[in-house]
C-alpha cells in the first residue's frame, strides 16, 4: 500500500528524543505492508494488509490479517488478550483456533533509547501533517525499525523494518491509513466458542514465516 501524499524533509537530525511519545489508549486503523525475505536460501515476497483494533484500556488487540506470500493468500484473525496472557490465531472458515502465549510486549511509548532521525511533513500548507521518525533497535528479535509517528497525538504513520527473525533475513515497509480514535465495534475482540478447546501453548506466539505480524504483536502490545 503506497501513501499518495508528498514527503517533504523539514529537519534532519540524529539524537535521543526529548519528549514522551505514547499512542492513544484506543484506536483502529489499517496497516498496509510489503516484505521481502530469504528462507531456506529462497527469496519470498509478502504483501497485504492488517486491520487493527488497539485497546490499551482493556489490554487487548485484534487483527484481521490478509496477506499473500508468493501468490498464496492467508486470511486469519488474531486476538491478543494480555489479561489472560493468550494470543488466538483463528481461521474462521475452517473453524481452526490456535492458542499461544503472546511474546512479551514492548512499551506503548517510543522507548527512551530510540534515536530521533528526522522531522518532516506530509502534504503542503494547511493540509500538512507533522511527523517525527525514530530508529528503534529490538535486540531480542534482531530487528531495527525506523518508525514514523505524528508529532501531535503520537499516531503511527509508517515503518521500515530490517534484520532477521528466526535467523531469516528480511526487509519490510509498512504504512498506516484510516486511523480513527476509539473502538467502533467491541465484538472484534470476541473469541469464537471453538477456541475453548484450544490448549494454550507456552511457546511465545511468533508465527513461523510471518515475521511482520510477529513484530506488530510486539509493537501493539504496549502494555508494560
Brief digest:
The protein has about 220 residues and is mainly β. It has one helix and 13 strands, in the order βββββββββββββα. The longest helix is centred in the last third of the chain and has 9 residues.
Q: What do you see in this structure?
A:
- There is one protein chain.
- By secondary structure, the protein is mainly beta.
- It has one domain: outer membrane lipoprotein receptor (LolB), chain A (Clam).
- 4% of the residues lie in helices and 56% in strands.
- The protein is built from one helix and 13 strands.
- It has a 13-stranded mixed beta sheet.
- The two termini are 31 Å apart.
Mean pLDDT, all residues = 81
| General form | globular
Summarize the helix and strand pattern as letters: EEEEEEEEEEEEEH
> Nearest-angstrom radius of gyration?
17 Å
Beta strand count:
13
Q: Span between N and C termini?
A: 31 Å
**Largest sheet geometry:** 13 strands, mixed
Indicate the structural class: mainly beta
Q: How large a portion of the residues is in β-strands, by DSSP E?
A: over 45%
How many independent structural domains?
1
Topology, element by element:
Blueprint lengths: L6 E10 L9 E14 L2 E14 L4 E10 L2 E10 L4 E6 L4 E6 L13 E8 L6 E10 L4 E8 L5 E10 L2 E14 L18 E5 L6 H9 L5
Parallel strand pairs: 7-13
Antiparallel strand pairs: 1-8, 2-3, 2-12, 3-4, 4-5, 5-6, 6-7, 8-9, 9-10, 10-11, 11-12
Keywords, separated by commas or semicolons:
single chain; 224 residues; mainly beta; outer membrane lipoprotein receptor (LolB), chain A; 1 helix; 4% helix; disordered C terminus
Amino acid at each position: 500500500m503506497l501513501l499518495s501524499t508528498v514527503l517533504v524533509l523539514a529537519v534532519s537530525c540524529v539524537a535521543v528524543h526529548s519528549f514522551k511519545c505514547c499512542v492513544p489508549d484506543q484506536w483502529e486503523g489499517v496497516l498496509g505492508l510489503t516484505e521481502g525475505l530469504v528462507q531456506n536460501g529462497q527469496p519470498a515476497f509478502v504483501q497485504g494488509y492488517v486491520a487493527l483494533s488497539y485497546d490499551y484500556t482493556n489490554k487487548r488487540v485484534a487483527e484481521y490479517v490478509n496477506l499473500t506470500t508468493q501468490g498464496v493468500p492467508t486470511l486469519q484473525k488474531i486476538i491478543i488478550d494480555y489479561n489472560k496472557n493468550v494470543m488466538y490465531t483463528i481461521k474462521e472458515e475452517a473453524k481452526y483456533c490456535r492458542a499461544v502465549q503472546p511474546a512479551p510486549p514492548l512499551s506503548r511509548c517510543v522507548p527512551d533509547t530510540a534515536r530521533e532521525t528526522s522531522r518532516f511533513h506530509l502534504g503542503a500548507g494547511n493540509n500538512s501533517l507533522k511527523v517525527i521518525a525514530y530508529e528503534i533497535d529490538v535486540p531480542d528479535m534482531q530487528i531495527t525499525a525506523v518508525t514514523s509517528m505524528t508529532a501531535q497525538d503520537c499516531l503511527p504513520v509508517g515503518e521500515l523494518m530490517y534484520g532477521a527473525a528466526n535467523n531469516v533475513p528480511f526487509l519490510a515497509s509498512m504504512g498506516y491509513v484510516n486511523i480513527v480514535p476509539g473502538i467502533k465495534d467491541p465484538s472484534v475482540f470476541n473469541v469464537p466458542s471453538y477456541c475453548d478447546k484450544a490448549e494454550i501453548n507456552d511457546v511465545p506466539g511468533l508465527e513461523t514465516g510471518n515475521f511482520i505480524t510477529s513484530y506488530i504483536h510486539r509493537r501493539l502490545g504496549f502494555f508494560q
